[in-house]
């Protein structure tokens, strides 16, 4: 594994510079190199680290079984520092060395920047986390694929889950960062939560004004005071990563959490319970790209969990592990079907691909390259155990009904 944390700024290789590099010939025995571009610094570094681990676990298992058509897989890592310009520079640098396949990526903004140059680089990008609705709709690019669910699916399924589990919670609030993925979360919630209560209970809910926050904020006291003043009973939380843990800690200290009968999130998985431990609030549903506990009967998931633990990474692999693993499985499946390394061959091989993953059967929808898969949520609370928290309940929801119609090049519409 090669890790480079440098920030490739002013000297980024443009199209003309890239053309000056001789492209290495690819032999049938040469390794298949996959670039993992992800966040290895800051509040999302835990997710980025697990992108690397997930891709490497998949590559190691495939290589041990003989590789893909006799070729080994090699994962090459670069940090994007959550900055689009850094990610673009890293992709250009890797493309100059012959890398044509990219995966990982946490931020929707980074994913958008990378998807915009994939055609120029004759490359494909498969993201394992970025959730912005725009990526497979108005900003769709043919060289871009998403192997996980996204805001429309996650918050749509979560809203249905809340209506099922909390039929009497009728006043809802929301807090979200004023960035693309945060706006996507709120757009879906504003439509799907009332829809779910009408469908399941023939009842109306009251949605209070969204409290918008700065991405990366560390002080939520004013925003929490606003939420308390709204008299809400339920809350959708759009802030993610360590921001979510900080918000929950302050919400507990300031008395907001104890007032709420239900909370659900876009999905920072185990971040909040690992930070807060036995200070976790009640009725907190965390969204997951993949919750391993819901797939104990899945042989692929079982192998990933066992390998994760055997390597000493911990006891609880998160969904970033699972979806990064899925990136590699998708590439391997496409190439085993006869595709080569180039985007000209990989794109048609990936379009409509049906393959087995840690979440069971997954399809990459042909029209917009969006994965059709399960959506996972887990109810997490404090516990008197080694972790200080436990999963009390979980939900494994078919995400297809919430995926929306494929509208590549056109914004997703609700209502």
From TrEMBL:
Pfam families: Peripla_BP_6. The keyword DNA-binding does not apply. It comes from the Bacteria. Keywords: Amino-acid transport, Signal, Transport. Signal peptide: none annotated. Belongs to the leucine-binding protein family. This is ABC transporter substrate-binding protein. The lineage of its organism: Bacteria, Pseudomonadati, Pseudomonadota, Alphaproteobacteria, Hyphomicrobiales.
């Amino acid at each position: 594994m090669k890790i480079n944390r440098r920030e490739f700024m002013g000297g980024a290789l443009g199209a003309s510079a890239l053309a000056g590099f001789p492209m290495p010939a690819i032999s049938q025995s040469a390794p298949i190199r996959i670039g993992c571009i992800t966040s290895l610094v800051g509040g999302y570094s835990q997710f980025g680290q697990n992108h690397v681990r997930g891709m490497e676990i998949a590559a190691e298992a495939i290589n041990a079984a003989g590789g893909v058509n006799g070729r080994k897989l090699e994962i090459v890592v670069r940090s994007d520092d959550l900055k689009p310009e850094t990610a673009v520079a890293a992709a250009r640098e890797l493309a100059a060395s012959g890398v044509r396949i990219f995966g990982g990526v946490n931020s929707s903004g980074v994913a958008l920047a990378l998807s915009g140059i994939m055609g120029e680089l004759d490359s494909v990008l498969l993201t394992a986390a970025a959730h912005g609705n725009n990526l497979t709709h108005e900003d769709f690019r043919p060289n871009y694929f998403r192997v996980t669910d996204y805001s429309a699916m996650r918050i749509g399924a979560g809203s249905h889950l809340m209506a099922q589990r909390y039929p009497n919670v009728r006043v809802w609030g929301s807090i979200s960062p004023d960035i693309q993925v945060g706006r996507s979360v709120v757009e879906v919630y504003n439509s799907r939560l009332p829809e779910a209560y009408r469908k399941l209970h023939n009842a109306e809910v009251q949605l209070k004004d969204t409290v918008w926050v700065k991405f990366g904020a560390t002080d939520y006291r004013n925003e929490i005071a606003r939420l308390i003043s709204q008299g809400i009973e339920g809350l959708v939380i759009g802030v993610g990563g360590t921001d979510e843990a900080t918000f929950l800690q302050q919400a507990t200290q300031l008395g907001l959490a104890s007032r709420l009968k239900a909370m659900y999130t876009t999905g920072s998985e185990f971040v909040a319970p690992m930070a807060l431990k036995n200070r976790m609030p009640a009725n907190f549903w965390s969204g997951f790209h993949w919750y391993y506990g819901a797939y104990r009967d899945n042989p692929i998931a079982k192998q990933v969990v066992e390998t994760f633990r055997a390597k000493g990474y911990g006891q609880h692999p998160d969904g970033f592990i699972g979806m990064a693993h899925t990136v590699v499985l998708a590439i391997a499946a496409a190439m085993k079907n006869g595709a080569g390394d180039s985007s000209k061959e990989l794109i048609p091989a990936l379009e409509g691909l049906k393959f087995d993953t840690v979440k069971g059967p997954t399809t990459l929808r042909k029209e917009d390259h969006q994965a059709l898969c399960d959506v996972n949520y887990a109810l997490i609370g404090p516990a008197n155990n080694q972790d200080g928290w436990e999963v009390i309940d979980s939900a494994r929801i078919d995400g297809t009904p919430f995926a929306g119609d494929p509208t590549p090049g056109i914004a997703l519409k609700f209502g």
